[in-house]
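User: Here's a chain of 104 residues. Predict its fold as tokens.
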Amino acid sequence: MKGNMNNMMKQMQKMQKKMMQAQDELHEMSFEASAGGGMVTITANGKKEITDIAIKEEVVDPDDIEMLQDLIIAATNDVLKQIDDKTNQQMGQFTKGLNMPGMF
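Assistant: Prediction complete.
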């Protein structure tokens, strides 16, 4: 019985190390999304930190600030969804089959 427990602990440690490596890889990834046919482009890393915002000059209209705001929101939500999807895909392999609510 003690041998089984030691073996299981080693497997858990190995899985934890793989999870940390996968999480580090995710954090280093770059994600990009655009809205308005490329008028607004948002870039973020896997930590959900916005690293760049590119706005084409022709979309900046002082009389229509709401449109620009909507484009920024749409591109930001899209890039955050991409990060969530990639995180679920990459980290989900570790929680597959485990009934653990709140895990990825």
